Amino acid sequence: MNATPSALPGTLSTVPKLNPDRVLASLANPMRWQFVQLLADGRAWSASDVANRFDRDFDGVSKHLRVLRSAGVLASRRGIDRRQELFFVPNGFRQHSGHLDLGFCLLRVPQARPDDALAEPSPISASPIPVSASPPATTPKLKPAPPQRINPIAEKAVVHLVEPFS
After folding, report:
1. Does some domain include residue 101?
2. Is 80 among the domain residues?
3. What is the CATH number of the domain that holds 59?
4. Which pLDDT tens digit goes with each residue over 37-48?
5. Residue 140 pLDDT
6. What is the C-alpha separation between 76 and 113, in angstroms, rounded?
7. Domain count, the chain
């Protein structure tokens, strides 16, 4: 992404023009969609913290996060000690609570919040890393939910396509 960072560390002041095919292909993977939902509140997470959170291996999680970053859905910056890369959803996509506005479509993500709402606790994350803070020593792992009958249509993300301006 060739956007200039804003005064607040970890945010992007401008939203890059995204390729809809690459973005939707990157979000089609269920694991990547879960990562975007986790990061939608604007907090930055390292790949190792995301891997611990979902009880996955670091290499696989790191690859998924890089795919999302190359598609433009996520951005990254170096952590305080410069050895960690922290991934986050740019503020330009989080202008309205509950939605990620990617320019060509709106994704309904209840966790999405603008930066000015970061003081409130996140409903899904027990210990996310604030953009300006260092990562916690340990991150709680999520236990897989027991299988249950659910409505697959209700679990799908709602995507609203926006017609381009002429």
Report:
1. yes
2. yes
3. 1.10.10.10
4. 999 988 999 999
5. 55
6. 18
7. 1
Residue 31, amino acid: M
What are the backbone angles phi and psi of residue 116, rounded to the nearest 5°? -70, -10
Residue that is written with structure tokens 């990254």 in the block: 76
Query: What is the pTM assigned to this prediction?
Result: 0.62
95-104, long-range: CB < 8 A, 24+ apart: 100/36, 100/40, 102/18, 102/23, 102/73, 103/15, 103/17, 103/18, 103/162, 104/18, 104/20, 104/23, 104/161, 104/162, 104/164
Which range among 7-11, 50-54, 102-106 shows the weakest confidence by mean pLDDT? 7-11
**99-101: strand order across its sheet:** 99-101, 105-108, 159-161
Amino acid at 15: V
Which structural domain range is residue 114 located in? 20-121+150-161
